[in-house]
Amino acid sequence: MPETVKLVYQGKTYELPVVEGTMGERAIDIGALRSSTGLITFDPGYVSTGSCKSRITFLDGERGVLYYRGIPIEQLAEKSNFIETAFLLIYGRLPEKAEMDYFNYHVIHHSMVHESIKKFYDGFPNNSHPMAVCSSVIGSLATFYQDQLSVRDEREIEIAIHRLMAKLPTIAAYSYKKSIGQPFPYPDNTMGYTSNFLKMMFSTPCEPYHVEPIAAKALDILLILHADHEQNCSTSTVRLVGSTMCNLYASISAGIYALWGPLHGGANQSVIEMLQTIYDDGGNVQKYMDKAKDPNDSFRLMGFGHRVYKNFDPRSKIIKKLADEVLLELGVREPLLELALELEEIALKDSYFLEKKLYPNVDFYSGIIYKALNIPVNMFPVMFAMGRLPGWIAQWKEFQEDPEFKLGRPRQIYIGDTRRNYVPMEKRKNQTPERD
Ligand code: ACO
Q1: Distance 230 CA to ligand 1 centre (A)
Q2: Under a CB-based contact definition with an 8 Å cutoff, are residues 62 and 250 in contact?
Q3: Which end of the chain is flanked by fewer CB atoms within 10 Å, N or C?
Q4: For the chain, which residues score pLDDT lower than 70?
Q5: Contact 160, 148 (CB under 8 A)
C-alpha cells in the first residue's frame, strides 16, 4: 500500500499520497490539494517545497553530501574533468571514449562567436558588470540561430548545448577584455577548455602567453564543484523560464541574472570585498564577528551559511585544500587567505554560528583561488556561471523531457486592499479609499 498523509480540514479527511525518492527523502504530493480542498500551500522561500522529481544531483545538507548522477563530488573533483562532468550531468552517464571525443570536439569547435556579437560590446559602458554583459550576450545568441530554437527537437537542443558550452568562456573573456580596453583574442581550439579561457583572458597580441598548468587544473576543479546544485535559485529560474517552452539560450540568460545576486552566485565577490574591508580596517576580525552577530546590524559574514547545508559544504573542504595547493605552487602570498582562516577558526568555535549551523560555503575560499589566478573580483560570479552552465542545461533538458512537464505558475495569498472604487485625481488628497 502506498503511504499517505491524512489532512483533516473543516471536518473532512483527505488522503494525500507520499512520494519517495531513491535516497529516502519524502514529500507529500499536494498536486490535487486545491481542487479537492480549495486550499493552497504557503511556503515563502520554498523551504519545504519540492518543485520537481530529478535524477541529476543529490545533496544531503545535514550530512554534507553531494553527488552528481550518484557519483560523490570528491571523486569527480579528483578523477574527472569539467567537460566529462558536464556530459555526465547533461546525459546521465559517464561517456564512453567515442562519446567523450564527440562532445569534446563540439564543445571546442563552437567556441568562436559571430563577428557581429563583438560590436555589442562597444555599446556597453567600460565599467559594465560582466554578469550583465554575459547574460545579455548569451540571450542574444537566440537572434543568431532563430531557426534552431525548438525545445522539442533533440538535434537542435544538442547544437544549442554545444554552442552554449563552447561560447560562454569566449563571451566571458571578452567582457573582461572590453573592461580593460584590450583587443578580443580568438579562441585557440588546440587548447583545453580552461587553458583556452585563461589565454583569452590574459594574452595580448604583443607577446606569447603561457598558461600555468596548476591554474588550468584549479579552474577545472572549481568548475566541476560549481556544476550543479539541484533546485537552487538560478536553476529553478532556468526551469521556470523553460516551463514556458522558451528556448535554451533565453533560459540560461535568465539563470545568469538569477545567479548574480549577493545571496547566491555573487557571494564569492562579496566574500573578497568583505575580507578586503576587514583587512583595510586593520584586520580586526572580532569587530566583524560581533557585527555579524548583532541583530541590529545588517552585516553578514559572507561565505558563511547555506539554505540547504546545515553542516560543512563538501565543496568548501575540497576548495580549501585546492587554495593551499594553488598559492603554494604559484608562490602567491595572500593576506586575505590568512584573514579568511582566522575568521573561519573563530566562527567554527562561536556559539552563534554553531547554534545556527553556519559553516563556510563554497564561496568562502573560491574567491581566494580566483584572486591568485588574477581573475578580477567582478568576474567571480561569471566563473560560477561557467561552472553552473552544464547543471542548468541538464536541469532544463530533464524538465523538457519530463512526463510531468507543466507551465510553472505558483499561487499566492493576497493580502492587499479588498475591492474599492477608482477615485478621480482631484478627489484623492486625504481620501480614505471609498469601498463598496
Ligand atoms: N552571517 C551572520 N548571520 C547569518 C548568516 C551569516 N552569513 N547567515 C545566516 N545568518 C543568520 C540570520 O541572521 C538568521 O538569524 P535569525 O534566525 O536570528 O534571524 C539565521 O542565521 C538564518 O538565516 P536565514 O537568512 O534565514 O537563512 P537562509 O537559509 O535563508 O540563508 C543564506 C541562507 C542566504 C545563504 C545566508 O546564510 C547568507 O546570507 N549567507 C551569506 C551569503 C552567502 O554566503 N551566500 C552564498 C550561499 S552559497 C551559494 O549560493 C552558492
Answers
A1: 19
A2: no
A3: N
A4: 430-436
A5: yes
